[in-house]
Amino acid sequence: MLDLGRSFLASVERSPNETAIVDGVVRLSYAEWFERIRNVTGALHDIGLRRGDHLVTLLQNRWELATLHWACQFLGVIVTPLNWRAKSDEIDYCLQDSKATVLVFQDVSSQAVAESAMANRVKRASVGMSAAGAVSFDDWLVAEPASRLLNADADDWSLMLYTSGTTGKPKGVPRRHRHERAAALAHVAQNLYGRGERTLGVMPLYHTMGVRSLLSMSLIDGCFVCVPKFDPAAVLTSIEAERISNLYLVPTLYHDILAHPNCSKTDLSSVRKLGFAGAPMNADLVQRLVAVFLPELFVNHYGSSEVYTFTVDQNAARKPGSAGKGGINQRIRVVRLNSKCPDALTEPYEEGEIIADLTGDESFEGYWNRPDADAKSLVEGWYFSGDTGYFDSDGDLFVSGRTDDMIISGGENISPVEIESLLSLHPAVDEVAVVGLPDPRWGQQVTAFVKRVGEVTEAALDEHCRASGLANFKRPRAYIFVKEVPRSPVGKLLRRKLVASEYDPE
């Protein structure tokens, strides 16, 4: 298999004059971008980076970050992007854990970098600003290209993403060139992308979805349109101005796009393919997206940083909630909860833990410096995801939540996702999250946190659940109205904050 440097070079040779990346006023063809990538590759080599070293970034989605990503692929350096919102202690931990020797940052992350003890011990470069003790990225753009451009092969490490660390220290997920390229190729195939597609680069490049958008566009000589920070007005403007052909977002971002007053005034006709991942999409949002975009293809992707694609459903509107069947490069099973046995298969509609075959082309090989995490998640050649779900009678997978999110009330296992999807269909409900709060009698009480868009009472929502046929033991016994449902920067629901009473009541 080609390494990613050679893969990008092939696109440059095929389509040198096609637009490769757009970022505000910056518009670069493949040939123009390649010249800048070559120079940055030379600069990184000149400061001592070599094959297998880590380069950490704290940058928003901008053409400089995408350039660094590709320069690392040519040099054989492991690009290690962190959330640009990371705090100083998180920066300290990741720099020490990865043993990175270079850190690249910008204005929005400069304060945390200044407060990081470890950041002051490594070489630093700043983007779009001057900073004491840091070289300017602009200087790298005029450096001499490396004498040897192609320094990696398909078995070298390409990328290391850090998981969100919601239950402890983040875990490094290293992935080889062949893992990344296989995932990008499958992404192209499963989304039916054609040559010259144009995608919106709004999912962050420290997240697997953002990286997949970047790589998949390069494989088809497509265009990556940077959006540094999600803003629905800016997104809508970019879609119309750049004639975006496909979107790949988390459900929360789709929700916010549809909710923006400019949505109805924006020409969205260029978007023919929709894709989402990161969380289940409720039935109401699915229906509204179909009505607004009239997509030719609407794909639900389910996966993780560790194993990019688990399953795919190329007709998300056909069976809302379905994550579909195993992806091109993957085998999936659902096994009994707490069994830790890959052969303890569940029956149709029986909820269990979702596991993935580690011999799949996209699968990682283990966490960085975390044998404890490996022992917990890697069992007999299978990755135990920590996600719960079930297969229906058609063999389609439904993801119901996390093993840690399962509500146990009166001895019954209750998945919050089903209840959330049902409540989302009420016209007065904007967003909803369901958790189990401590209860002296039942163990946990099913509780719904609701962000309203209209007047509605607890009694009305309870009647909505009763009328739907929801099993009585699954009905929320309490409703709490909130100003916002807490989410991570990439739109993941943070139930732990609700359990810890970290929310603003309405």
From TrEMBL:
PROSITE patterns in alphabetical order: AMP_BINDING
InterPro entries in alphabetical order: AMP-bd_C, AMP-bd_C_sf, AMP-binding_CS, AMP-dep_synth/lig_dom, ANL_N_sf, ATP-dep_AMP-bd_enzyme
AMP-binding enzyme C-terminal domain segment(s): 418-492
All copies of domain AMP-dependent synthetase/ligase, residue ranges: 10-368
The protein's name: AMP-binding protein
Pfam families, per database record: AMP-binding, AMP-binding_C
Single Gene Ontology MF annotation: acid-thiol ligase activity
Superkingdom of origin organism: Bacteria
Entry-linked Gene3D superfamilies: 3.30.300.30, N-terminal domain of ligase-like
